[in-house]
# Entry
Amino acid sequence: MKKELKIYLASPRGFCAGVKRAIEIVEKSISKFGAPVYVRHEIVHNKQVVEELKEKGAIFVNEISEIVDVSRPVIFSAHGVPKSVPKEAKLKNLSFVDATCPLVSKVHRESEQLNKNGFEILLIGHKNHPEVIGTMGQLPKGSIKLIETKKDVDLLKENDFKKPLAYITQTTLSVDDTAEIIEALKNKFPKIKGPIKEDICYATTNRQSAVKEIASKCDIFFVVGSRNSSNSVRLVEVAKKAGCNNSQLMHSEKKIPFNEIENSETIGISSGASAPEKLVQNLLDNLRKDRKVSIEEVIVAEEKVVFKLPKELN
# Structure
């Protein structure tokens, strides 16, 4: 007789509108221009997605300089690119399609507007993340200062800044951690200007809310997603903070910890915004082998956002 296992399934989970759009841009580019098409960086942070697109005819490169056949188009990833990248593509006469998520592009436009209006800019985000590199690369070097933690805020001094101050954020941060950093900034610089509408995207916020709703009821919490996916890693942190100490990232190399599951009665599952739903279903199928599984889907929001494709593909 199989032992019962209760699973709380977080919803929304998985692909967001920006990720769906980016994958569709690669697929449509292959069908419009033929294979191969080049993609600069992982189009989204998921190994499975990247492998499937390779099979369809995408060649992934780290830099424009690696492109061998300049007659083929190149696609820029959903995370956004510094201004220098399209510039380099134009110099090489490469045609390109920009798959930057529209919500990341919004942050790029904010930074340019603030700079134009004479503000000094602080960017809350994670060093070396492609989105942060892209956002900082919208303006001349030194125009944007990166803030990663509350400690970084403590180190800032009022007389470091000659102009009025503004902040922007990466779109895939922990909502709560970012709120703490923003509060610290406002306490220190009461006149600091923030975005009209917050920069953390709707999908990040919804996925974190769903995890918070169920984490405290779970013996284990699994987040399906890649190690280099910022929003997936944040979901693991959110689950721990919300009351499930044993929260784990289920990335492509990780084996399912059946020995831990054996002693569990309740498991929570979510997935990052670049993780395909079939990976969640595979995990559920594996859990059903040994246990009598009952699933409760906990829905905190309905997502109806759809982004238009770039005009080159219409």
Observations:
- DSSP finds eleven helices and twelve strands in the chain.
